[in-house]
Every structure is written in C-alpha cells, then in structure tokens.
Amino acid sequence: MLLSVVIITKNEAHIIGTTLQSLQGLTDDIVMVDSGSTDDTISIGKQFNARVIEMGWNGYGINKNVGIDAAQHDWILNIDADEALDEELKQALLQLSLTDNLVLYEMRFKNFFCGKWIRFGEWGFDKHIRLFNRKQVRWNTAAVHESLQLPSGARVQLMQGHILHYTTQHQEEYAFKTLAYAKLNAEKYFQQGKKATLFKQIFSPLFSFIKYYILKAGFLDGQYGWIIALSTAKYTYLKYSFLRKMYRQQA
Q1: CA angle 216, 221, 222 (to 5 degrees)
Q2: 3, containing H or E segment
Q3: In whole angstroms, what is the distance from residue 81 CA to residue 12 CA?
Q4: Angle CA(172)–CA(173)–CA(174) in degrees, nearest 5?
Q5: Mean pLDDT of successive 10-residue segments in the chain (251 residues)?
Q6: What pLDDT is attached to residue 70?
Q7: How many domains is the chain built from?
Q8: Closest C-alpha to 151, from 168, 127, 123, 132
Q9: Which domain holds residue 105?
C-alpha cells in the first residue's frame, strides 16, 4: 500500500514494539523521528525495518513535519509511539484507494490507563485525523497540542476500527506528563499573548472536573475515571498558574 507511517519517539522501548508490530503488512515505509532515546527504542525500530532519523527536540509539530518530509509516499499515517492499530482499522486501511488528496481520514481511539480501557469522560469519545496527503496537509509548528493545517475543500471520512492508545503504565508517569504538558502549554499561551486571570486559574479547573467527571460520565470508569478527571483539573490549574508566573516575571 502506498502510504508511509511517521512516528516521533523518545525512550519508547517499553511500547514501540507493539506499535510497530501492528503496522506489519500495511506499509513498506515506516519513519521514526527520534529525539535522543537512551534506551533500546532505535534498535527495536530497526528490527522492524523502520528508517530512523535522529535529531534534537524542536516541538511536536516540527518533528512530525521532519518525518513527513522524509517519507517515501505522499499519503501519511501519523501515529504516536504508544499507539497501535487494531485489526479492523488495519483491514479498513488496506482497502482504501487513496485517490482523492482532499480526503482526510479520521480514526476512533480506545484509550487505556494503566491497562484499563477508559470508556467515558474526557478520553471516552476520542477521534482524530491521522491519515492525510502531505501535498495538502501539514502540522503547524506548535511545541505542544499541535494541529493539522487543513486546505479549503477538505473532507473528513471516519474509518472503521480503532487506534489503541496505551497512554501510561503508572500513575506516577501520568502525573509527570501532566506537569510537563502544563508547562509546555503555558509557554505556548505566553508566546501567543494569551492572558491568565485569577478567575480562570481558580474556576477553569472546577468547570473542567464537572464537565468530564459528571457531564461526560467519567465516574462510570471508577477509580481511574476519578484520577483522570482530577488530573485534567490539576493540569488546567497548573497551566494558568505557570502562565501568570511568566507574566509576573516579565513585569
């Protein structure tokens, strides 16, 4: 099939083998853009015949675009290192004709937290565009929460099957990610000139928790639903806290 897969990696040896195994028989071109792995990520990638580009960390959007430019084919399947295709999605991809460059393919997600499939809350109804033609679509250069720049006339088609997203193995790892993303997003907001009021810092986390834990039924996922909703609220609080601190330091 004439599509390339692009994955950005750093120290993903615990999961990258599962990701790459799910791609077997789908493509003859897998590009891994690695930003300084010190574990066996690169060697595992090469075992699956992935082409590895070693470079520094320039942000999610930039690193993904480096992989897109290096790909052999124009159709790009962009997945993360902790994601795998289920068999239904893989078979649906194999049946695509990929003749219309303005069609973008959206995929449903099954998100797992410490091995448990999260069915509700913030993670329960996840879907994202992951297959597109690079002649029409690229990632923006945001350091975090990057997004696709879509052309006029683009049409989105939903695929059958799911991407299996193994978000974290340990609660401590998730807490670390929450802190790191809050700092990155605060820096992004600061560069964009967005302001953070005390009202936002206090009440946005509360609204976030109510939305995902109650309105989107995160409580039905039990203990992990509580942890995820609470972590999202904490992330929101920290994001605005870091942003307000940046403006105070600037002043």
Answers
A1: 120
A2: strand 3-9
A3: 7
A4: 90
A5: 93 96 97 97 97 94 96 97 98 96 97 95 95 95 84 95 93 90 91 88 95 97 96 95 92 76
A6: 97
A7: 2
A8: 132
A9: 3-168
